[in-house]
Design goal:
Number of strands of chain A: 15
Strand content of chain A: 5-15%
Strand order of the largest sheet of chain B: 1-4-3-2-5-6-7-16
CATH superfamily of the largest domain in chain B: Adenosylhomocysteinase-like
Oligomer: heterodimer
Shape of chain B: globular
Strand order of the largest sheet of chain A: 9-8-7-10-11-14-13-12
Helix content of chain A: 40-55%
Largest interface: A-B, 15 and 15 residues
């Protein structure tokens, strides 16, 4: 494979026209990205950037990709989840605004809905493999898989080989090791070289950020990173308002159960859990929270939610949603204790919050596929639970993820972070950084007009009185929004 | 505007109050149809009249619908020469109603419908007015309470207004000689209407009574929004407790209970609802409330609010298993929803007035239960009752109903009658106008469409 690259791989190019229509609608709902195109279109600050993106290949991401291109970047893309690709969006990106299905002129994109694990890591590898054996010089990551791929590749190149998987390793890890083993055999040194060229990564999500901080503190991080997740205009908006919108959407599309009157358990009361709890309560569910953090647990209680342990309520609740960022939150044994046809889903980034492997290993268990991304798991005693998206992000698997407006906030942060890292590389030494507050405020500002918000402006005297500039930043770095 | 805290229920001062008003004697109750021999006022302290006037003025400002009706009545004089006996909470808002009726030509004789809710300054102010008498003292005992009702009835009323049905009940049981002169009346509360329906079913109700509690606008604003807000207000004033994070048990999910549950949730409480009606219980569940039997809610709740209209809703058996420090409050009309006697029976010690309107009952194992307002209606006792805007709607309905009765009583048989839909619509229009809200009107084509059965899909 060395040196050879496929132009793209998507499910069905004939979907491109539909995808283009949706992209056009989404552009209207993504005022931040469109403003960035306007602002940087002339200066082309990303000229020379070779960005590999690993991020859900949706209509909103298409607007992000075309924004990066509009300000000078070259881009290759893969999805960061096997179920989250919207095939019409991927097709439209492959075809491009000026191409046709017969003559595609778009972006090299490797993504389709329903990839196998092997296909998933193949797609990631393709997105990281630039023509002529080159690698990317920028990463745009969501969950850290592209970053991990490069790091593990370089690590095993240095170690002289890829280790064998241990018996209790997850399937996914086993598959990644296989892909890396093939890659190292085909192009030795490729990932070490790539890691050396990469100016930095901008990471989208909590989970990926967590990995980055771990690598930074272990001294294994190979290039600087910007933690986009912790921009206020990302984490509060995407995590809270986005999930508030798309959780209920996913449950409705998957099951069409009446949420009013049901008892719903949300595991985790971080930003995502808060949004989930609010939306389910808004639909009339009685929401119970599980937490390990006393501060978040107290917040939940003060917001009027019952806080219990999963053991307390596992047998009585109707809907379970994991939103922790941790693993083994809902075990197979717990699922077996649930009510008949209880609904189980995950809105945390990875699919290990719900123990799907353990569920599949229960004696006598049967899986009945109701429809794509909706499975009934029947226990030996005949009762069953309904698992959404095989335990993966249900808002993306069963619905269409966050709405465009919310994603415009996160993705405007992404674009600004890419520009910062690429053009001011020296200002961001090895380590994990967050965007300066004035840029966070800028992202928010770019979205106000579309909502008809009329902002009040500080007078000079007022600004002096509280010790800020008239044009911001308005809050100290440790301010909690 | 100098706002005085209501004197209502400040029992500490009760013993020192002089009998400044002219106290009724049994002799003054002699039956007689001539209004000139009617009641005289009995209030706690006539010297409070100036403060009461100020408070009434403040309330009237917040009752724009009643103000619009007043102007109308002044011109029309619908009650010219008629006596009205009213048994209502003697508050500044009630005074607004009395003033509107007076403006329409009525002689109004007011007795208190609850011994703890009387605002003595308002009573004094009204007693000083032309065309009104008031028999009401805060903290009056049961005997005085009924003497006051008799006193109001002494006017030989043509129209009656009741709040809990004690006046109508007394009229039928003890003043039957007056029945023939009564054209009709209206009842404000759900509890009172239930008593009236039982009277009507038994064939004893002697004149038409309009169920003013049951109009659509009334149920919405008074019960749901008014009681919902003021019951919570009363509990907060009495205890200064933070509701966020607390488990609040609301007994009854009728209009009042719904409002209370919604507002408690809005303040961050986790709300449990108890119900006996499966339809109301289902509504609560669909709104995301936890519905439990009281026996299951009793050991987990921290604040209990009854709003059922029934009795013995929180019984001794429930009280016995409650947590230390629970707060017990009643937002229903009568003081029978919480078994106060049962509570006293369980207690080894009672610390009255640990805060105003809060009595602490200590159980044998040391647990402390806090009873608010002696189990009486907490929003009136510990707070100021409904906000004036809510009472505006309620009293506007009663004023219009009374004018309708005075005009059209001839066509109405004895029994319980609903508020005419036209009056309901008129009230809502007045409220909307006062809120500055404009609404659409049906076009003739739309009205035609809605009236026709011919149009299909």
């Amino acid at each position: 494979m060395s040196g050879q690259t496929l132009p793209f791989k998507v499910a069905d190019l004939s979907l491109a026209e539909f995808g283009r229509k949706e992209i056009r609608l989404a552009e209207h709902e993504m005022p931040g990205l469109m403003a960035v195109r306007e602002e940087y279109g002339h200066a082309q600050p990303l000229r020379g950037a070779r960005i590999t993106g690993s991020l859900h290949m949706t209509v909103q991401t298409a607007v992000l990709i075309e924004t990066l291109v509009a300000i000078g970047a070259q881009v290759r893309w893969a999805s960061c989840n096997i179920f989250s690709t919207q095939d019409h969006a991927a097709a439209a990106i492959a075809v491009g605004p000026d191409g046709t299905p017969e003559d595609p002129r778009g972006i090299p994109v490797f993504a389709w809905k329903g990839e196998s694990l092997a296909e998933y890591w193949w797609c990631t590898e393709q997105a990281l493999s630039w023509p002529a054996g080159d690698g990317p010089n920028m990463l745009l990551d969501d969950g850290g898989d592209a970053t991990m791929f490069v790091h593990k590749g370089a690590e095993y190149e240095r170690a002289g080989g890829v280790p064998s998987a241990a018996a209790d390793d997850a399937d996914e890890w086993r598959v990644l090791l296989d892909v890396l083993r093939r890659s190292l055999a085909a192009s030795p040194g490729k990932w070490t070289a790539a890691a050396g060229q990469i100016r930095g990564v901008t990471e989208e999500t909590t989970t990926g950020v967590h990995r980055l901080y771990e690598m930074a503190s272990a001294g294994t991080l190979r290039f600087p990173a910007i933690n986009v997740n912790d921009s206020v205009t990302k984490s509060k908006f995407d995590n809270k308002y986005g999930c508030r919108h798309s959780l209920v959407d996913g449950i409705n599309r998957a099951t069409d159960v009446l949420i009013g009157g049901k008892v719903a358990v949300i595991c985790g009361y971080g930003d995502v859990g808060k949004g989930c709890a609010e939306s389910l309560r808004g639909q009339g569910a009685r929401v119970i929270i599980t937490e390990i953090d006393p501060i978040c647990a107290l917040q939940a209680a003060m917001d009027g939610f019952q806080v219990a342990t999963l053991e307390d309520v596992v047998a009585s609740a109707d809907i379970f949603v994991s939103a922790t960022g941790n693993f083994n939150i809902i075990t197979a044994a717990q699922m077996s204790q649930m009510k008949h046809q209880a609904i189980v889903g995950n809105i945390g980034h990875f699919d290990n919050e719900i123990d799907m492997a353990g569920l599949g290993r229960l004696p006598g268990i049967r899986k009945i596929s109701i429809k794509p991304q909706v499975d009934e798991w029947v226990f030996a005693d005949g009762h069953s639970v309904i698992v959404l998206s095989e335990g993966r992000l249900l808002n993306l698997g069963n619905a269409t993820g966050h709405p465009s407006f919310v994603m415009s906030n996160s993705f405007t942060n992404q674009v600004i972070a890419q520009v910062e890292l690429f053009t001011k590389t020296e200002q961001y030494p090895l380590g994990v950084h967050v965007l300066p507050k004035y840029l966070d405020e800028k992202v928010a500002r770019l979205h106000l007009d579309a909502l008809g918000v009329r902002l009040t402006r500080l007078t000079k005297e007022q600004a002096d009185y509280i010790g800020v500039g008239v044009d911001g930043p308005y809050k100290s770095d440790h301010y909690r929004y | 505007m100098a706002e005085r805290r209501p004197a209502a229920g400040s029992r500490g001062a009760a013993g020192s109050r002089g009998a400044a008003g002219s106290r009724l004697t049994a002799g003054s109750r002699a039956a007689g149809a001539a209004p000139v021999q009617g009641p005289r006022s009995d209030v706690a302290d006539q010297g409070l009249a100036a403060a009461g006037l100020a408070r009434i003025g403040w309330a009237e400002r917040a009752m724009p619908a009643l103000g619009l009706i007043r102007a109308h009545f002044e011109a029309e004089q619908p009650f010219a020469g008629l006596a009205v006996a009213a048994c209502l909470h003697v508050t500044a808002e009630t005074a607004g109603l009395v003033n509107v009726l007076r403006a329409g030509g009525a002689q109004v004789h007011l007795a208190a419908s609850n011994p703890l809710s009387t605002q003595d300054d308002v009573a004094a102010a009204l007693a000083a007015c032309q065309g009104a008498t008031v028999s009401a003292r805060s903290g009056a005992d049961r005997k005085t309470y009924y003497e006051h009702i008799h006193s109001a009835l002494d006017c030989a009323p043509a129209l009656v207004i009741d709040d809990g049905c004690d006046l109508v009940n007394t009229l039928h049981a003890e003043r039957q000689e007056l029945l023939a002169g009564v054209l009709g009346g209206c009842e404000s509360t759900t509890t009172g209407v239930a008593r009236l329906r039982r009277m009507a079913a038994a064939g004893t109700l002697g004149f038409p009574m309009v169920a003013a509690n049951a109009s659509e606008t009334r149920r919405m604003l008074d019960n749901r929004y008014g009681t919902g807000q003021s019951a919570i207000d009363g509990i907060i004033r009495a205890t200064n407790t933070l509701l966020a994070g607390k488990v609040v048990v609301v007994a009854g999910f009728g209009s009042a209970g719904t409002g209370i549950a919604e507002r408690a949730r809005g303040l961050g409480a986790r709300v449990i609802v108890t119900e006996v009606d499966p339809v109301r219980a289902l509504d609560a569940v669909m709104q995301g409330f936890h519905v439990l039997p009281m026996a299951a809610a009793a050991p987990v709740g921290e604040i209990f609010i009854t709003a059922t209209g029934s009795r013995g809703v929180i019984a001794a058996g429930h009280l016995a298993v409650m947590r230390d420090g629970v707060i017990l409050a009643n937002a229903g009309h009568f003081d029978v929803e919480i078994d106060v006697r049962g509570l006293a029976g369980l207690a080894v010690a009672v610390h009255p007035q640990v805060r105003p309107h809060a009595d602490e009952y200590v159980l044998a194992d040391g647990r402390r239960l806090i009873l608010l307002a002696e189990g009486r209606i907490v929003n009136l006792v510990a707070a100021e009752g409904h906000p004036a805007a809510v009472m505006d709607l309620s009293f506007a309905a009663q004023a219009l109903v009374l004018a309708w009765l005075a005009r059209d009583h001839a066509g109405l048989p004895p029994g319980v009658h609903d508020v005419p839909a036209a009056i309901d619509a008129q009230i809502a229009s007045l409220m909307l106008a006062s809120l500055g809200t404009e609404i659409d009107a049906l076009t003739p084509a739309q009205r035609d469409y809605l009236d026709s059965w011919r149009y299909g899909s």
